[in-house]
C-alpha cells in the first residue's frame, strides 16, 4: 500500500509533464489571464471576435486550449459566418508552444460585400421559409445549411460562411466563436455558388392512370356468337 501512492504520483507527473500549457481568460472581458494545463488539446488559440445579434455588435476576446478540429495547424486565419439575425467574424491565431497565446489580436476590420449571395432565415421560422437572399461579405465564400439545437428546440441555420468555418463546424459540432447559437444537430452542408443553399423541396410522386377503351365494331357484333369461345378465353367471365 505504501508503494501505491508514490507510484500514482509518478504516473501523474509523467502524464502532465509533456502536456501543453495555454493562457485562458479569467473573466468575460479577458482583462486578465491564467495558464492552464491542456488535457488532450495540442494547440493554443487566441481570438478577437466581433459578434452581432439583432443589430447589436459586441467585441469578445477568447484564449484557451484548442483541439485539432479548431486549430488543424499553427498560423493566423479569419473565420466569418452570417445567419442573418446573428453573425460573427473572428481573427484567430493558433500556436503549439506553452503560453504562446498570450497576445491579444486586433479586432477584425469591417468586411465589404463580395459577389456571393446565400439564402438565410429567421431562426424562429420553419425550414421552408428560409428563402431570404443574404449578401455575403469578406472571406465568406460559402453558403451554409444546417440545423441547430437550442435547449429543447431545433431551428434551421442558413447563411454565409467562410470555408474554414464550414470545415471546423462539421468536426467541432458547433459554429466556432458563435457557440451561443446552439449545437449543430444535422449535417453541415456548404456550397460555393450564389443561392446554392436553397431549402430542399420534396415533391410527391405523380401517379398516372391510363384508361383503356375497348370499341366493338358492328361486324364483330354480327359474328359474336361465332367467336364466343375465343372471347371467353381472353376475357374470363364475359357473358354473351
From TrEMBL:
Locations listed in the record: Secreted
InterPro entries, A to Z: CNF-like_PLA2_Inhibitor, LY6_UPA_recep-like, Snake_toxin-like_sf
Secreted listed as a keyword: yes
A GO term, aspect molecular function: phospholipase A2 inhibitor activity
Main location: secreted
One Pfam family matching this protein: UPAR_LY6
Limits of the UPAR/Ly6 domain: 20-112, 116-210
Keyword Kinase set for record: no
CC per GO annotation: extracellular region
Keyword terms, alphabetized: Phospholipase A2 inhibitor, Secreted, Signal
Signal peptide: 1-19
Name by which UniProt lists this protein: Phospholipase A2 inhibitor and Ly6/PLAUR domain-containing protein-like
Species annotation: Betta splendens
Phylogenetic placement of the source organism: Eukaryota, Metazoa, Chordata, Craniata, Vertebrata
Amino acid at each position: 500500500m505504501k508503494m501505491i501512492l508514490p507510484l500514482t504520483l509518478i504516473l501523474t507527473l509523467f502524464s502532465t509533464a509533456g502536456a501543453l500549457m495555454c493562457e485562458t481568460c479569467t473573466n468575460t472581458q479577458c482583462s486578465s489571464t491564467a495558464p492552464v494545463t491542456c488535457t488532450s488539446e495540442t494547440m493554443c488559440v487566441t481570438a478577437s471576435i466581433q459578434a452581432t445579434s439583432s443589430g447589436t455588435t459586441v467585441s469578445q476576446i477568447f484564449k484557451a486550449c484548442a483541439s485539432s478540429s479548431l486549430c488543424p495547424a499553427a498560423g493566423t486565419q479569419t473565420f466569418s459566418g452570417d445567419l442573418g439575425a446573428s453573425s460573427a467574424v473572428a481573427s484567430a491565431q493558433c500556436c503549439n508552444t506553452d503560453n504562446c497565446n498570450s497576445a491579444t489580436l486586433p479586432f477584425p476590420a469591417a468586411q465589404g460585400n463580395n459577389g456571393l449571395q446565400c439564402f438565410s432565415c429567421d431562426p424562429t421560422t420553419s425550414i421552408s421559409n428560409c428563402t431570404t437572399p443574404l449578401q455575403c461579405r469578406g472571406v465568406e465564400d460559402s453558403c451554409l445549411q444546417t440545423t441547430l439545437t437550442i435547449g429543447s428546440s431545433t431551428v434551421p441555420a442558413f447563411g454565409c460562411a467562410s470555408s474554414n468555418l464550414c470545415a471546423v463546424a462539421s468536426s467541432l459540432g458547433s459554429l466556432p466563436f458563435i457557440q451561443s447559437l446552439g449545437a449543430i444537430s444535422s449535417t453541415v452542408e456548404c456550397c460555393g455558388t450564389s443561392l446554392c443553399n436553397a431549402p430542399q423541396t420534396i415533391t410527391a410522386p405523380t401517379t398516372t392512370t391510363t384508361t383503356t377503351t375497348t370499341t366493338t365494331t358492328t361486324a364483330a357484333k354480327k359474328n359474336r356468337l361465332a367467336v364466343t369461345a375465343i372471347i371467353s378465353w381472353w376475357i374470363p367471365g364475359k357473358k354473351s
